[in-house]
Amino acid sequence: MEVAVEYEYGQYLECEANGMIYILGGDEQVKWKLYRGLKRFVTGKLLNEIEEHVYGDDGIVIKIDGKPVKAKDIRILLLDNRESFLEQLRYTKGSMLFQYSEALQENFSVVRKIDEINDEVLRLELILQELYAEVFTSMRPLLKAVTYADLLKSSLGLAYFENEKEYPLEMMDVATIVDDYCDLLQQHILANQKLTWLWIKNPKAFMSQPILIKFTQRLRKICEDTGLLHVYILSDECLEIPYNQEDLSNTVLVYQNQNQQLPDFETFVNSLERYYPDRFVFKQAELLKSLYRIFPYIGRESQFEIYLNPKDMILLKVVSKLLEVNCESKYPDLEVHLTNLEKKFLQNE
Fold it and tell me: Between vectors from CA 103 to CA 145 and to CA 76, what angle results, nearest 5°?
């Protein structure tokens, strides 16, 4: 699936999207503009005059396989803080929990129980009418039939539990409800059979490291099981989650107002070997970890001092040269764990 998302007039992030997509690199402003545009797009409302100066008369353009889509054509979910995570677990119009609860009115057991309740309501109505008849001549009570929608509106409450203690949702730890979120997401996708995008911006800002690992593993499984979920993770820092070879071709680097989707693992490694100043001796797992540690620094402004281990710094400069990106970052002490050729390579601008 070829995706193009406009973040300013005529400027797009373009990629081949398949499952989990990682949008990394040193251009934090472009990533922010991209996410800003998505938040505006999902409202489905026309742009005002000022917004048209940013995106043009035709609005925010999102294309899938070359065809423009509207907000109603695709479900886009956004996560950028703890509150955006929790809002899908509230019974409010438009939330996944709201849609799940509404859909239960078609459940056979629910329909049967509502019928039983209404039989009891009818019996109660007859009792009341007899009591009224003892007092009144021309007046009889009538009870309205109960509907599932009425019960949800007037009687539904939600209890949230953590360590067997009840808490308001606002006080719940994301770690406790991440499984509920994933279960709800999968159920929502299967029920609607609609292409769904989940965009996550800087998840380490509102999720601990172990929970982020668990969350991304669950999302990867939902992508595989449904074929309808695509997850886009925007991050300004190293995520420190497990990666595999296939993730490399699902990684888009955003740098100096450019974006570049990486090739497959073997092709990329062959390119790195050609640029590396000494014998290339990385193991696969070690290389993947190192690459995803340095990707957030690609194209970052030169005034930032980068603190990476020396081997990572070598790789950062190699990837920068490969992408034809200026790499003028300040380096700390280079005397540890580098060969003479590696030190010379780093120090020659």
Answer: 140
- Nearest residue to 314 (alpha-carbon basis) of 289, 268, 277, 271: 277
Cβ neighbours of residue 98 closer than 8 Å, sequence gap 6 or more: 90, 91, 92
Residue given tokens 């719940």 in the structure block? 172
Name the residue with tokens 């800002």: 205
Is 10 in contact with 218 (CB distance < 8 Å)?
no
Structure-token match 């390579």, residue found = 345
Please list the alpha-helical segments (H only) found in the chain: 28-41, 49-55, 82-86, 96-103, 108-133, 148-155, 174-192, 209-226, 245-248, 265-275, 284-294, 310-322, 340-347
Task: Please work out, in degrees rounded to the nearest 5, the angle formed at the alpha carbon of residue 81 by the alpha carbons of 85 and 293.
Answer: 110
Residues in the chain: 349
Contacts of 36 (CB under 8 A, 6+ apart): 7
Phi, psi angles (nearest 5°) of residue 128: -65, -40
Q: Which helix H or strand E contains 87, and what residues bound it?
A: none
Indicate whether this model's pTM tops 0.70. Answer: yes
Cβ proximity of 62 and 289 under 8 Å:
no
- How many CA atoms are closer than 13 Å to the CA of 341, on its beta-carbon side? 6
pLDDT digits (tens, 9 = 90+) for 161-174: 888 888 888 888 88
Which helix (H) or strand (E) is 345 found in, with range? helix 340-347
Q: Is 63 helix (H, G, I), strand (E, B) or coil?
A: strand
Contact between 91 and 101 (Cβ < 8 Å): yes
Q: Which of 259, 205, 198 is nearest to 232 (CA)?
A: 198
* Distant-in-sequence, close-in-space partners of 30: CB < 8 Å, separation ≥ 6: 7, 13, 254, 257, 259
| HEC per residue, 214-271 | HHHHHHHHHHHHHCCEEEEEECCCCCCCCCCHHHHCCEEEEECCEEEECCCHHHHHHH
> Which residues on adjacent β-strands are paired with residue 6?
12
Token digits for 194? Answer: 């609609």
Amino acid at 326: N
For residue range 6-53, what is the model confidence (pLDDT) as tens digits?
999 999 999 999 899 999 999 999 999 999 999 999 998 999 999 999
